[in-house]
Every structure is written in structure tokens, then in C-alpha cells.
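Give me C-alpha cells for this 340-residue protein.
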Amino acid sequence: MRLLFVGFGTVGQGLAELLLEKEKFLAENYGFEFKIVGIADKIMGSLFVPEGLDLEKALKMVKEERSLASYPGGEYKKDALSLIKETDADVMLEATYTDIKTGEPATSYIRAALERGMHVTTTNKGPLALYYRELADLAIKKGVQFLFEGTVMSGTPILNLLRETLAGSNITEIKGILNGTTNYILTRMEEGFSYEDALNKAQELGYAEAVPDADVQGWDALAKVTILARVIFGGKGNPFDYPCEGITKITAGAIADAKDRGKRFKLIGKVWREGSDVKASVNPEEVDMSHPLGGIMGATNAMTITTDTLGEVTIVGPGAGRTETGYSLLIDILKINGIK
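Here you go.
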């Protein structure tokens, strides 16, 4: 299988490390063999080797902060979109930065790859939250797969669970903790930290960005519930069509009071049906400590799915991380490999 990386930052490198680490295992157990024909990265430069490049060498160059343009005989001077249009790859692995307002440039990359007849897997929330139906229909038209397991809970397979494992169930509601940064901050506040100190600690550990608004204002979770609303329930809303409130107004006193009553605050993303309408929201809620979501502490994610067949099903796992998100791409690649 010929693979093209578009975006070779933390997530792309996480996948590259997994491919190298598991190369023999994947071949023996899944019949999966691969070669990397190109890499395009806005910061590290672009590389095009149609016969297949040395992934270990390329990964080492990036870790040493050497431009991929210095790879012998592989420099590619055009932009990523040109590389997609000129590369004869089977699968594009899209892992560029997320822009939840426009979905670009990722949407253009995905559209170009699908038009060219490539399968696509992405970890990018923007294109799914804004253009899921258009891109999914294009994939169907072109007879290729468009997969995106890593967009909601990183490597924890919530989308596969909802779309495949729970096939035949009527899912009426999905709700849960979709942002590990805010859950970590609320956990520390319950231990006695102020909001400011808990945020600073999250930033020190790399959970929160220097400008943490996407997490603490709830926008990251909002993008994820929008994806669930579109993919699972057939909703048509865009992210900011739904009500969203973050955690910045939660006080230490409110957390202590909730704890005294056997509850704790969680930032809950929720999608549900109300008649023929699809509803979604992101809000802080008091959750009973006895509920599975009430016991989720630290930077962990969890989702509770309400079904007519099994009642409530809760899945718990990591919602971020280099290896974890890289693994979500691997899940999708193996699915594509099985179909082929």
C-alpha cells in the first residue's frame, strides 16, 4: 500500500513510529505491507520519492529538526495540494492543523485526494464538523474510503463502536467527556487547586496550549459533538449552531459544594434526538459520582451511549496523545487494507 503523509507533526510522526515498530507484526498478522511515497509538511518541508522513501531516515531528520528538503533526491518544491494531485498513492494520511471555522486547508487536501481516487484517513476535526456529508458523498462517488476514527476520541474507537459494533441498535443519546484538558483541570480543582493554578499545571504538562481557549471555552468538545451529530444522527448543524459553555465560570466553591452532595463537575458534550430534530450541546454538568462518567479523572475521555438494546454503554480511553492519535490513523489504514 502506497501511503502519502500530509502533515508530519506530532500525529504524523506518531503513526510513523508505529509503522516502523509494528512493521513485521502488521505484515504477519494482517498481510499489510507499505511504502511511503511522499511527505508534505508546512514546517518541515516536502518529500517525494515514488519508489518509496526510507521512513526511519525521514523521521530521524525531522526529530533532528532538519528539513525534509535535504533528503537526498527527494526534495519537492511545490505545495501540498500539488503533491496530492501528482502522487500516485493509495491512501492519503491527513494530519494537518485544525481550523474549526473554515476547515482549511485540510478540506481542500481531502477533496483533492478523493477526486484523485485515493482513500483518505484524517484526524482533522474541521472538515468533518463542516463538510462531512459532501466529503462522504464524494468518497462514495469515487469508490474509495473516507475514514476519521481519530477525530473524536483519538485512538479510543468510539466511531467504530457506534457505526459498526452497535449496528442494529437505536442510539438515542451520546454524552460524555470529550476534552481531556478540561477534565484534568476540574480534577485538580477538586483536589484544592485554583482554576488558574490547575490551568498552569495543565500547560506545564502539555495538556493545554499557551492560549487555551479551544479547550476551556469548550470549542474542541463542540467540534467533536458536531461530528457525532452529523455522522451518527445525520444532523446538518455547524459547530456554532449549538449551545456551548466552557469551564471558566466554575468556582472552587461550586466544586466543593457538588462534592459534598456526591456529585462532581464535568464538561459534558451531548448529542440526542428530540422528535425529528438532532440536538447537541457542550456544558458543565454535575454528574453523580456513582455514574461511570463521574469516576473519570485526569486527562481521560469517556462516552456513555444510550441504546434500545443494551441500555447504557460507556467507553473509556485516551482522547489525545502522539501515539494514541497516530494509532487512530493505523486503525483506519488497516480497515482500508482489509477492504482492498
